[in-house]
Write a structure and sequence with these properties.
Elements: E1 12-26, E2 29-42, E3 48-50, E4 53-56, E5 60-67, E6 73-76, E7 88-91, E8 94-96, E9 102-111, E10 119-121, E11 128-138, E12 145-149, E13 157-162, E14 166-176, H1 188-191, E15 194-198, H2 204-214, H3 224-232, H4 238-252, E16 254-255, H5 270-276, E17 278-279, H6 281-293, E18 298-304, E19 324-330, E20 335-338, E21 358-363, E22 366-371, E23 381-390, E24 397-406, H7 407-418, H8 422-432, E25 441-449, E26 456-465, E27 469-472, E28 475-479, E29 500-501, E30 506-515, E31 520-524, E32 529-533, E33 536-545, E34 550-559, E35 563-564, H9 569-583, E36 586-591
Parallel strand pairs: 1-11, 16-17, 23-30
Antiparallel strand pairs: 1-2, 2-9, 3-8, 4-7, 5-9, 6-7, 10-15, 11-14, 12-15, 13-14, 18-19, 18-21, 19-20, 21-22, 23-24, 24-26, 25-26, 27-28, 28-36, 29-35, 30-34, 31-36, 32-33, 33-34
Helix pairs in contact: 4-6, 5-6
Amino acid sequence: MGAAAQTTDDVVIVSQRTDAYVFAMKNGKTEVHHSCRTDYRLNSQGAQTVQPFVHYGDDIRLDRASCSGLTAEYRNVTPDNVFFDDSKICFFTAELTTRRPRLSAEFQRTFTDLRYFARVPITTDRFTERLTLTFTIPHGMEGIRLVPVNFDGRDIQLEAMSTKTDSVFTFTMTDVPATPDDAHMPPLSLTAPCVLVMGAFSDYHELYRWSHELTQIDTDIPGIDQILTEIAAGATTADERLRNTYAWVQRNIRYVAFEAGIAGHQPDRPAEVVRKRYGDCKGMAMLLRTLLRAQGIDARLAIVGTRDIPFDMSRCPSLAASNHMICQARTDDHTYWLDATCRYIPADYVPQHIQGREAMVEDGDDCQMVRLPLLPAAASVDSLCYSFHLSADGRRLTGTAVYSLSGDMKELFMSAYEHRSLDSKTNLLAGNLNADDHSKTVTDAVWRHRDAASPMAVFTGQVEDAHSLQQLDDEIYVELNPHNNLYAAKIDTLRRRSDFWLPSLCNVVREVRLQLPQDVALTHVPEPFSLSLPQGELSCSFDYRKDERLVVFCQRMHLTDRLIRRADIPAWNDALSKWLTASNEQIILKTSHQQ
């Protein structure tokens, strides 16, 4: 049921879609009545199937569904929806033919709690000739306001009018392409237009108090003394106990996504998280808080809106602005921001998805609004260093490779590694010490460090490279670029419809150190290269340390912005070409006994 069409020439288009949201008061609570109609039109001679659908669940009541006399189908699902985890879907399977080239689907729903009606995305799964979104807010509900998000650069018309009883706001778009579904695209929350519905909470203090009430649960853990004894082993300071506690939760509790209904907002009891050995961010944060407080450490829950959300909780107090929970812990020496959903980072590293974001940190019955640290991109490193020497016949490079990862790059790699089978794990290590085309020979790939508490994950191997050298008479041409960098792949623009989202901010370093024998001289060293881009810097350098008879090639990709806009992709590809051309330049060696 994803994006299926892009232009008026597609086989099926939506001629018109109308969504109407009417606010009403019932039994002292605000409800929102939603009616939606979608008109489909066949543009080909062959039959085509469409599946109109709508989500509903604990806080969204499905009132009516119809589609040209067809029978509705119902399923339990876990959709990627507005901001909460819904549980059910209603849909029709309809066929358009030349005899019936048009059909309409209509749904009516009721959002029974305004707090959960936080934002309305403006997305389409087919090319839509006309899209209309209407909000009707009765006079007397002036506290409810609409905030457009990601509207820049889009032709979205707004008409506001007032009747005797209501304020009516109508958003209209024409010739709307289907929302893209490309690989490596930015989160839709950062790119797709939506309308925030504000007013359920007067400010972030009220938002916090609602969330805080849900955290008032039983925190007793049977057998906690045994857990604390295990945690305290070898620890002599509060900071060491804190790190051990974080590592214990990382090691023993598996992360799962949050559940449907109230469990999407309320932490599970720590005893249940320990019993089940899994939990969501809220349950893991509450477990951390409980274990740390039992050791006399100041630990507090912290509600965060991750970097996937383009607005702050202080400006937009809404459930749409908060989607994560972590644990803040303080010792005399340090303040820690502990996100136990990350299994392979140390306690003093703040993962990128929450860096620089606001956190509502519990402070009694209220909260402190604190902005998390923003670390430099260089704190997340992906580094591969080859230490080579020239074989006796001058036809191969042989030596050792050391791969080091820190920060988010460590988390990404270790997560992929742990999900592999045993044989696949060994192949993964060897493969990452090789070139992208696997032209090197790698043996004895083993871990040196991989503990979550360690700042770096490090593995090594023995490497032989016979493809990077070419000998001509008394000269040896050596290409030092190891050709090991998946970030260096060009982006295919032929069918791409969206911006590109790089996997992580980081410093990708590829270094080759070549020890020259006494009878070999260096006669040519390429020029260094550096190029600045909106996404960061690309560089390479060739350095000869004469006293050590050591040639050092260093290639860097320093990424400080993950977004590559679609219009900038050709420039990015061109920059990669220039960077790789400079990196592929050869050094020239000369054997002295033939001079």
